[in-house]
Amino acid sequence: MLDFDQSNHRKDGFFLGNKAGFARKQDKQGLTITRVASPLPVIVPSLEKEIVPDRNHVAWTSVRQERWEGELVVQGEIPLWLKGTYLRNGPGLWHIEDYNFRHLFDGYATLVRLHFENGRLIAGHRQIESEAYKAARKNKKICFREFSEVPKYENFMAYVGDLAKLFSGASLTDNSNTGVVKLGDGRIVCLTETQKGSLVIDPNSLETLGRFEYSDNLGGLIHSAHPIVTDAEFLTLLPDLVNPGYLVVRMEPGTNERKVIGRVNCRGGPAPGWVHSFPVTEHYIIVPEMSLRYCAQNLLRAEPTPLYKFEWHPKSKAFLHVMCKVSGKIVASVEVPLFVTFHFINAYEEEDEDGRVTAIIADCCEHNADTTILDKLRLQNLRSFNGEDVLPDARVGRFTIPLDGSPYGKLESALDPDEHGRGMDMCSINPSNLGKKYRYAYACGAQRPCHFPNSLTKLDFVKKKAKNWHDEGAVPSEPFFVARPGATEEDDGVVISLISEKNGSGYALLLDGSTFEEIARAKLPYGLPYGLHGCWVPKK
User: Fold this and answer.
1) Is residue 380 helix, strand or coil?
2) Strand ranges (DSSP E) for 417-477?
3) Does residue 479 have a cis peptide bond before it, meaning omega lies within 30 degrees of 0?
4) Full-model pTM
5) Most-buried pick from 14, 185, 377, 449 (CB within 10 A)?
6) Is 469 helix (H, G, I), strand (E, B) or coil?
7) How would you class 125 by CB atoms within 10 Å of its CB: exposed for 0-12, middle for 13-18, buried for 19 or more?
């Protein structure tokens, strides 16, 4: 960790110049730049071996080196109340030696850190040292089963041996490249779809501390990559691939033991639907059963299919199940129109005039039941944009789940998709509105033509309007909302995003949560790969 009051500080191969004071100056265009460190920190490569990148947009290029840390020059002004650390996880290394990976989700995890304090910004990144990453680096080849990649077998018996390890989970990756969460007890855990890919990290040094070992006997190999995490609890879903269904489990802060709340049996088949994420309300857990279902046969294959570990079963239909958080009882199970989503945004309970809950409203980033979005995320596709508008349409899908025993729920657009360019993913909300009725959400939208979400958008579900931010040729990552301490308005705060530029550069961006206008940016020494999901660790 770099401390703000240290000078001539050298640690882990990083160097900062003399203690910096702040100056106010103007750039060549006359723009007033405030809170600029003067003199500038010296930014040099870490002592780690530099990674040779591909010649593509930096968003889809392997990270330049294993780690870096330094203070950034700030244009604009960082609010003084913003004190803490933003962590962002995601795939960042898409090759081993001269072998290039196939899919965005295959990359070895790169954790990025932005530490805000007193209007200043320290940034850094570091590779997460999973067993999969360490083995690949040591053996110069893929050694575990990734999203679309499998080890290259020397002979048939080696393949058979790997299959045996698959059933025990030994051959599955622990490459925790999807999300990062702060547990109620303060521990920071990076996550992916495999349970073994739950790794504890130090939020200051970004050091990988070890595996998060679950102390229960619930077993299973996979779980939702997006648990619901608050200061009071950790909720997640464990898909059952043998007897198709889901265990709904809770873990209390300070423990590693998950306890079963209840079980949902699938109404369709032949396997559970993929549950990358799920929503909750104040009293209920919503378990989605998508027609994009896990496929055991695809898990066994040595080469990927078009839908990778999944299979599309439209005839199996789609369902939403509502479970009581306290009793584990299923209070509603409805058939809904077919849908495809990676990410639910939020859910809440709708009440009548007497205060009785009559329905559940659940919002998600919905891809119009089009599974081709998975294949659009192949690196070959991401690296070959030629100006054509090939990003599949997406929207905010709003489910209405009646609690009166009706067998069917509704799915409609929460607002006109053209408001956000018919692109929609990577969402965040004010965490104080989790499970409650809310007005605003932040997400990645589209400025057409494009092949990937390339804008940031603020959604207003009351006015059914969107405000959009766009930087030509740039790829922004998930807009993460941090509320101002003591705020009473839902959108009183800032939105943090990391931007990868087409010229190979990159910067950290702060937008005003209310106006959605830029308030500050800080240029990175080099552009970083596209990342997925983040969390906020407030300064104590």
Assistant:
1) helix
2) 425-428, 440-445, 455-460, 465-470, 475-476
3) no
4) 0.90
5) 14
6) strand
7) buried
